[in-house]
Amino acid sequence: MSEAALQVSSLHAWYGESHVLHGVDLTVGHGEVVSLLGRNGSGRTTLLRAVFGLTGARKGSIRIGGVEAIGRPTHRIAHMGVGYCPEERGIFASLNVEENLLLPPALSKHGEGMSMQEIYEVFPNLHERRTSQGTRLSGGEQQMLALARILRAGARILLLDEISEGLAPVIVQALGRMIRMLKERGYTILMVEQNFRFAAPLADRFYVMEHGEVAEHFAAPELPSKMARLGALLGV
User: Fold this and answer.
1) Run means of pLDDT, 10 residues per run, the chain, 236 residues
2) Given 68, 103, 112, 114, which residue has the most CB atoms within 10 angstroms?
């Protein structure tokens, strides 16, 4: 049996003296899409940041492709093929689209990232806007650029934080199609989503977090039987 793409065990994480994650266990298989659900403040974003080495102290185990990463700094985790797309997107606003895409070096030891031609095939809007500065892009275009940049750098495990937030429905639908395409290509995706309607048809499995712990975990076929429980946990 091959190692999981991402295996988190007994993970604790802190921001300063604030203890945010309390023994989280989570597994993401190769080529899976896993959605992290939960109310704001439940620890979902902190979990993504902890995996990528962006919190303060961490304790427990984070195995990426079977290799322990808990003690590694962020740049070393990126070299293991992990890419993080934060909620604030983090593009270089003063650079144009093409400059943003060409700036990051190839990081993954598992092979080169997507070529510019592939990026523009997946994100045709970015090809049309390739000479536009980041400040001139719409929110949806900025989100696509943030995603394209980590694919360009060679990430195969994608940590996506609220990628649909605040975007027009047509853009949200385009992002959904992109996630399905990435899954078909074998990418592994762990995503935090407040938009349940967006996440539900995409995910193979769900984890629900509450107060920095996993309160519920189930596979997509179980979703209909879990709706009452989700209503209690998510307040929807």
Assistant:
1) 87 94 97 94 95 94 96 92 88 91 70 84 91 90 91 93 90 91 95 90 95 95 91 78
2) 114
